[in-house]
Structure formats: C-alpha cells, structure tokens
Design brief:
Helices cover about 35% and strands about 15% of the residues. The chain is α/β, with parallel strands linked by helices. Helix 5 links the parallel strand 6 and strand 7. Its main location: secreted.
Length: about 325
C-alpha cells in the first residue's frame, strides 16, 4: 500500500511538471507570434498614417510588415495577389513624376536646369507634398496601407551625368527619395551627353534615399524587338546591375515608357516585382494603373497640376 501511494504521488508531481512546461511553451509561442491586425488596431484605434514600412523585407510575400510610429508595434497587412492592386489602394491618388537630364543649358524639352529642379522641389515643399520611395508605393499598392496625406514619387530616367552632379545633391539636401532608371550599355559613356559612371552609380545605390531600376541594356522600344532580344534587354540588364552594384534590382522601367503583354510577361518571369511605364495621352496616377507591371507616370511639366490632386489613403481599412 505504501508503495502504491508513493507511485501515485510521483505520478501527480510529474503531471504538474508537464502542465507547467506546457504553459511555458504556450506563453513562449504567444510572445514570439507576430501581433495580429486586430490586436494592434485595438491599441491604436486612430492608426491612420502612423505606419512605417519595415525595411529589408520581401515585398512579394503574402503579407507586408509595418511599424506604428507611436509605439513601434508591428502590424502585418495581407497583400493582394500579384500583380493586382489592393482594392483599398484605389482610393488614393499618387502622382509618379518623370524627369530626364538635369544640366545648366537645356537642349530639348525634357531637360531641366538645376535651378528649375530646385523650384520643383520648393513647390513640393511649400505644397506640403511628401516624396515617398518606390518600396513605399509598392507596399501601398499591394496592401492599401495609408500614405502621407499628399504623396508623390520622383523618377529620373536614363542615367545622365547631371543626375549625379545636380539631381542627387538636391535630393539629399531636401531629404527626398527618388528612383533612377539605368540602361546599362550607356553607363560611363559620355558621347553626346554625359552619363553616370559605375562608381557614381554605386555611391547613389548605397544611399537609402535612392532606388535603382533597370531601364534595359540599350534602351530599345521593347514592343518592336524579337523575343530573344527582349529577353536579353530585360534579363541581362538586371544581372549586370546586380553584379556591379552588389544589391538586388527589383524594378524595371520600360524604355520610352512603352510596353505590351509580351514585355510584361518577360519582366514578370525575370523576377522583377513591378515595372514603371509612361504613355500619352493616358498619363494617370499610380493607383489608376492596370497592375504592378504598368505603373503610370506624369511628365514633369504637369507637376503643379497633379500635386493639387495628390492624396494618400485616409485611414487603414483594417482598422475602421
């Protein structure tokens, strides 16, 4: 009988120990889980625009992480299926502006002087418009995440020398992020106009303000070349940029802004996340684009007009 009670006591103690371990494991699991949208929203009922995109994450996943600026909580937002736009993002109006060369003496209508570019930046500042990064725009288009009240994205095409000499210093002065679209065959070539060197390009790519986008190898009209040539322009330019800059290149910019279904498919298969386009007379806001592989832009001359319509999502849909 004594042996029976001893065995019963040992069994009871063992069960109590197992229960404690299970509770500890459960507590650990709760601590390591990402907070749910509902949990964060209950603490931040007026979450609105206080979200900051978590850096160094893949934006092609099924969820994108943000931090609340008020308390540094992590919020995980579900994404729309690639390459579609999230329904909540359709409420916003984000102008993407297209610039080309910046030089002291303009040669064609697409050029700007450094003084004129500064006036553009001053207009953006005085209008209380907030330049955002391409990553911010993509995260917004995929999740419907709120943006600053008046957002804008600045893009510079073709990798001109004036981008490093004039545009980049002004961007740093104002703290404005921007996208530079590079066609690789002209890097370091100064025939006619100057172009960025690989060293200058690497300096810019290492700056968190700057996003580098592939603009093909030789800047052809992609809709008018063979399948083999199209593949080379889209795929090899990505490989060259990533090798030279030692960083992923996730975005493509169509030469002349032109694309068709064939070009979009090749860009998607090359593992780009999104592509920037341009077309007249169909210039429109990014949120009015067909999908992530045809992000629309405005020519720089329309800046004063479109910033009056710039608008980020008013609130986070999941917290309403």
């Amino acid at each position: 009988m004594k042996r029976f009670f001893t065995l019963l006591l040992v069994t009871a103690l063992w069960m109590i120990t197992l229960s404690g371990v299970a509770q500890s494991a459960s507590s650990f699991k709760l601590m390591t889980q990402q907070p749910t949208n509902q949990g964060v929203c209950s603490q931040h009922k007026n979450i609105s625009r206080e979200l900051k995109l978590v850096s160094n994450q893949r934006l092609n996943s099924s969820k994108i992480l943000f931090r609340t600026t008020a308390s540094d909580k992590v919020l995980s937002l579900p994404t729309a299926p690639l390459p579609t736009l999230h329904p909540a993002s359709l409420k916003a109006r984000v102008p993407v502006m297209m610039y080309h060369d910046i030089l002291q003496e303009k040669k064609i209508i697409y050029d700007l002087t450094p003084q004129e570019l500064r006036k553009h930046f001053e207009l953006i500042k005085s209008s209380q418009v907030t330049p955002i990064s391409l990553n911010q725009l993509i995260a917004h288009l995929r999740t419907g995440s709120p943006l600053p009240e008046k957002p804008i994205l600045l893009t510079f095409d073709d990798g001109y020398g004036g981008h490093y000499q004039y545009a980049y210093p002004l961007l740093k002065e104002y703290g404005y992020p921007a996208v530079f679209s590079i066609h690789t065959s002209w890097v370091g070539v100064n025939a006619g106009r100057t172009h960025l060197s690989w060293q200058q390009l690497k300096t810019m790519a290492n700056d968190s303000l700057i996003t580098i986008s592939s603009h093909s190898k030789t800047h052809p009209a992609l809709t008018k070349i063979s399948d083999q040539k199209l593949y080379q322009e889209v795929v090899e330019s990505k490989k060259i940029l990533e090798s030279k800059l030692d960083r992923p290149v996730n975005y493509f910019t169509y030469p002349y802004g032109k694309y068709d279904l064939r070009a979009k498919k090749v860009v998607a298969k090359a593992n780009y996340l999104a592509a920037i386009a341009f077309g007249t007379p169909t210039e429109k806001f990014a949120n009015q684009s067909e999908d992530l592989f045809s992000i629309a832009r405005f020519e720089k001359s329309r800046l004063e007009e479109v910033i009056l319509q710039a608008w980020g999502n008013p609130t986070l849909a999941q917290c309403n």
